[in-house]
Design brief:
Helix content of chain A: 10-25%
Shape of chain B: globular
Number of strands of chain B: 18
CATH topology of chain B: TIM Barrel
Strand content of chain B: 15-25%
Largest sheet of chain A: 7 strands, antiparallel
CATH architecture of chain B: Alpha-Beta Barrel
Order of helices and strands of chain B: EEEEEEHEHEEEHEHEEEEEHEHEHH
CATH class of chain B: Alpha Beta
Number of helices of chain A: 6
Number of helices of chain B: 8
Structural class of chain B: alpha/beta
Oligomer: heterodimer
Helix content of chain B: 25-40%
CATH topology of the largest domain in chain A: Rossmann fold
Number of strands of chain A: 16
Distance between the termini of chain B: 27 Å
Bound molecules: flavin-adenine dinucleotide, flavin mononucleotide, FE2/S2 (inorganic) cluster
CATH class of the largest domain in chain A: Alpha Beta
Structural class of chain A: alpha/beta
Radius of gyration of chain A: 18 Å
CATH architecture of the largest domain in chain A: 3-Layer(aba) Sandwich
Distance between the termini of chain A: 30 Å
Strand order of the largest sheet of chain A: 4-3-7-1-2-6-5
Chain lengths: ~260, ~300
Amino acid sequence: MKKKTEGRVLSRKCLAPGIFDLEIETCLAADAKAGQFVGVYTKDASALLPRPISICGVSDDKKSIRLVYRVAGKGTEEFSHLKEGDDVTLLGVLGNGYDTEKIKTLGNSDTPVRALLLGGGIGVPPMLELSKELSAAGVKVISVMGYRNSDTFLLDEFKKYSDTYVASEDGSVGTKGNVLDAVRENGIDFDCICACGPMPMLRAIKEFAGEKTAFISLEERMACGVGACLGCVVKTAHEDPHSHVKNARICTDGPVFEASEVEI
Amino acid sequence: MIKTEVTIAGVTFKNPVMEGSGTFGSGMEYSEFVDLNRLGAVVTKGVANVPWPGNPTPRVCEVYGGMLNAIGLQNPGIEVFCERDLPFLSNYDTKVIVNVCGRSVEDYIEVVERLSDEPRADMLEINVSCPNVKEGAIAFGTDPSALSNITKEIKAHTKKPVIMKLTPNVTNIAEMAKVAEDAGADAISLINTITGMKIDIERRKFALANKTGGMSGPAIKPIAVRMVYQASHAVKIPVIGMGGIATAEDAIEFMMAGATAVSVGMMNFVNPYATVECVEGIEDYLERHGITNINEIIGCVE
Ligand SMILES: Cc1cc2nc3c(=O)[nH]c(=O)nc-3n(C[C@H](O)[C@H](O)[C@H](O)COP(=O)(O)OP(=O)(O)OC[C@H]3O[C@@H](n4cnc5c(N)ncnc54)[C@H](O)[C@@H]3O)c2cc1C
Ligand SMILES: Cc1cc2nc3c(=O)[nH]c(=O)nc-3n(C[C@H](O)[C@H](O)[C@H](O)COP(=O)(O)O)c2cc1C
Ligand code: FES
């Protein structure tokens, strides 16, 4: 059941310049999984729409969620000032999330499935919960995370669940270039890809995946977040079963899509 | 016992609270949040004779106190609507108002005729803000003679009560209301969105792919209240008021301005419980003020 509900900030950290980490106690944690997101409301009555932020973590007791976000404007600026004990209004849990069961079927049966997780910039946080869920499901996880420069975040935590590689645009850490440059440089082999990041990166990944299945997490401007307004669509390869046109709603039919199913 | 029923063109609604077309899908999405049985009516997303793919993205953006949208009336077409959405709504004890869009008079007529044998469609709401492709893409609702013509044509092709949904993008709303009434409309609803624009100054780009979009939300409410007041005083047919309604107080303000019923639009996105909270808040207000029949407050402001 989706809800609009009050959560309570348990902790707030700054992970890198402009990147913040909130742990929020909320009943939404009970149903949350990797790839899903919540809408976070501002307290500013002029900025009405919920801000979509991905689930970066779900606590083991399923009582709190973790959101890692970049200050990008009015709303995220406000959220960066939240402190322990503050209330925060959430809409959730939204979106489909990654299909772990399907990912488990994508290898050959003798060896564990090898999932390659690619995160770029603010696409890194949702990959963390996914690496945790997949490794718990017996999937071999390889994470390649891309950053602008040496201001990396969450890397140590990826190492708990996966073989972890890094790329940076300026070459200050790991491979110089993007995540695909790092995949090639390290000769990484894989059965499927899960990716979140800026559109040019996702386009390159769709092309790179070739015959292999790639799941990509998309972003679009949203209003309702629940599939009612048709604001957040992506063009699809086939007629969508809900809309009956070649358009799917990112907030409900996604944000995770098989790359071959969407025209990006 | 407080009476909250209102009647429009012979259809009785258990209370005056509905939602704005396009902000509630066909009810399914928000049925997770609110009990649709509590609503006076569900007003469905605009539906055309054939599926429409809508506009490119970005289709929505936030503005101060509201939002702009240029969805482009994406819809699955009347066949899917009748096979999927109307049967879903049959599970609920609420009235169903089907919002209709088209690019030519013939498009509208096709939809209206298809709905004639659908018992679940209690009323039709005709969105005349769509571009009239045949007449050079001006909206049907901005030209009095086009509005008169389409109203008459639709009335001639259906027995169901017809609500003409007026656009605020006109100079004289009272005149447009009168035109709709004279052409046979059973009711009018207003306001649709106000055409706006937003520019992203960092990227030197329009915020919407369509450049312009319709503004909705609390920031437009005073304009909407004024137009509902002017329109309802120009005609005898009932008026359904909307534009920025978030709370029961807002809803009551529209009713006092002259609306027989009200719709919650984009505020559903901000508070998915807004419709039912309006229903409950109106009941509280009536009780607090010792009003036994909601009809007493309609147009009561001097
Ligand atoms: C499914 C999804 C998951 C996301 N997950 C994360 C995450 O985990 N961490 C993170 O830092 N960011 C994430 N984003 C991007 C985040 O939603 C925006 O950065 C945020 O909405 C900006 O809000 P603002 O008020 O600070 O910016 P403003 O520019 O003031 O926002 C104005 C309006 O535009 C919308 N908006 C602005 N940028 C975006 C954007 N990139 N995508 C969608 N809407 C936008 C806002 O929601 C708001 O309605 C995600 C976006 C989507 C669609
Ligand atoms: C995303 C969105 C989609 C809409 N789609 C339609 C539509 O299909 N048909 C229609 O007549 N009005 C449509 N409207 C207009 C609303 O029904 C309403 O008239 C308007 O938004 C003003 O009310 P509000 O400020 O409460 O949102 C839409 C509005 C929004 C925000
Ligand atoms: S944001 Fe409304 S449909 Fe996705």
